[in-house]
Amino acid sequence: MTGPDGVGIGWRPEIAGFVAELPGLRFVEVIAEAVPVAGPPPDGLTELRERGVAVVPHGVRLSLGGAEPVEPARVAHLAAVADLVAAPLVSEHIAFVRAGGLEAGHLLPLPRTREAVDVVCANVARAQAELPVPLALEPIAALFDWPDDELDEAAFLTEILDRTGALLLLDIANVYANARNRGTDPVALLDGLPLERIAYLHIAGGAEQGGFYHDTHTDPVPAAVLDLLAELCSRHRPPAVLLERDGHYPPAADLRAELDAVAHAAGFPVVT
Questions:
Q1: Domain count, the chain
Q2: Would the pTM count as exceeding 0.85?
């Protein structure tokens, strides 16, 4: 399987200078919708590519779980970004973000029904037909389950992956958040997933608020999430793991230490 390897970080303009100075960085991920395709890549991405750092576009607006077919223009943009940055693959979420022409502004969870599986698979097939590289699908963090669920999460995800041939982008922080909020065992989900289909992992920080654990991307990665990463890698070490950080950026020394902690938990060389 061709894709990223080692430790990466989500590329954001606010930390572009920091990212450029990481000697052992293997890949970055960019929000696909934030990349214009009418000109060159954003400042810094070309230099990273010339260093051998892979760039993975990460979509947030396709709405693969929406009842309406995915919009061709959005798929075309994702494909164009993949070409622009010579991406080894692209990724998107198993979620919906719009319905009836209304934008939610947030990734929303699907009911785990067979009808929802059919919808996702149809939309993934539409996207795959236009994409120049493989597609990895990411299950999201959700604060609730729909009352008409027919499948558990592992069965739901496995059926989608089997039917589409897509890869899996597993967010270990989402696994932790969902298990903690549902009162379930996160390791049980890992044991039910086809771990060999993982293209790469996400990991991020979170915080307790209002009786729920929120996957914030603005807090440090808790020790329990790093432990879950290590547990996963003891079963099947995926080729790559990426730290997501979206605001409240800590001092550079703290962010380097967090990256090194992620590398250590996953058994990868440090990037700093």
A1: 1
A2: yes
